[in-house]
């Protein structure tokens, strides 16, 4: 391998990477050791070693029965090596105009990338959208003996059929739902960066749609190669991690800049600014530091992210967005011309909409209930809000303070507990205040995942002590919980006061949002008086004056929202 790999590489740009050193360790039986070597950059300085490891990893991928190999490429294209004219092999439409990154390749090697992708297009007719393919192909060409071997490597990534393993998005539906999922992850794990995006970009989702290109395309070669090491071992989730770390680093750089005053600008300008930052990221951080930041983010499990991705795919399918369309069809749906609230402005609702899970942020806001029209009655509140999921509650107090909550679950769920206050909802619920400044408070478990285990242990203990009829401390959801994530699944509680998963509850006397040693919001049956205090579920301060009178309460639904 040492004599073969590297024929496409411009070695004058490769620094201290060894071209002809012995490969060293290339076969791994211990997955833990393989993972540790991938993350620590064990192969970064030895081109032959990395090439041999990659070939082993790619050959080990389970693929569909008929997967084109190097022999197929040689039959179609021949044995051409790095002498192809790119114009002879135009890139297919499914790369969406994405150019081939140089990645320290010889100038003429770009033609080889074109040739490989052109052959891929003929062998994989089902691919309809795959803008990351030029970057992945250019990277794999580095560690290939010839174009045919690169073609086989890419083919195996595309044909991988291991259940639950995802390598390359190949349809617009998969790609767009991944962009939405990334947006959801930014909301939760990079709130400061998300706040910056909302303050500076006219269309936040459009900015987040570049996330894959940041990692596979814009990052310099030394960074991208380290990402590829981990990507081939651990899969798609590492791309989310690195993109989140990039966004965190960008925010840090922006906040440190002298001209860091936040002004709204066209999304294209923000996208260009982030792209320039990523392309020059070596000036502010090393590959090691970027990966350290990426793995310090306490993401939910791969299963959790897969469920979120599937939920986003379902939302897009229900809206008929399965092929690439004009931007306005997939951007946030709040339109100032047809939005009218007595509590918040169109700009403020857009800011709130930017916090909402992406699959719902595509929906138009729909006024379901307002005390100014429907009166101050909890029964009327329920009758207008039942059957809608999720909902957004807005409150203006007689002192002019504004706060509210995003509620993930249909209020009809409260009936499962009879007239007993019984908590339900999911970890997508959050509460917020608008003044003195806009602030959102999410489920505390997002920032402190260890609390989920402690909370579950408390639930189990309460269940054992409380088996005397009525609703159990933890009632199993209708769907087998082993197939649901605690973040997206609705669970019903009658819990002790130290629980961190008390999202929403209601009966004929009151509604409560957020529990655990206090309530984020308590509202009485006449929708007239309320209280707010710190609660464990959202770890929030009081959202307004602790005891308040309600001047106006509105509930908004999400037109054409995904059915539960």
TrEMBL record:
Major localization class: membrane
Record's GO cellular component terms: cytoplasmic vesicle membrane; endomembrane system; synapse
Membrane topology: Peripheral membrane protein
InterPro entries documented for this protein: Rab-GAP-TBC_dom, Rab-GAP_TBC_sf, TLDc_dom
UniProt keyword ATP-binding present: no
Domain of life: Eukaryota
Keywords, sorted A to Z: Cytoplasmic vesicle, Membrane, Synapse
Subcellular location: Cytoplasmic vesicle membrane; Endomembrane system; Synapse
Matches recorded under PROSITE patterns: TLDC (PS51886)
Residue stretches making up the TLDc domain: 342-559
Disordered, as annotated region: 455-481
SUPFAM superfamilies attached to this UniProt entry: Ypt/Rab-GAP domain of gyp1p (SSF47923)
Role description: May act as a GTPase-activating protein for Rab family protein(s). Involved in neuronal projections development, probably through a negative modulation of ARF6 function. Involved in the regulation of synaptic vesicle trafficking.
Subunit structure as annotated in this protein's UniProt entry: Interacts with ARF6.
The protein, known as: TBC1 domain family member 24
Species of provenance: Sinocyclocheilus rhinocerous
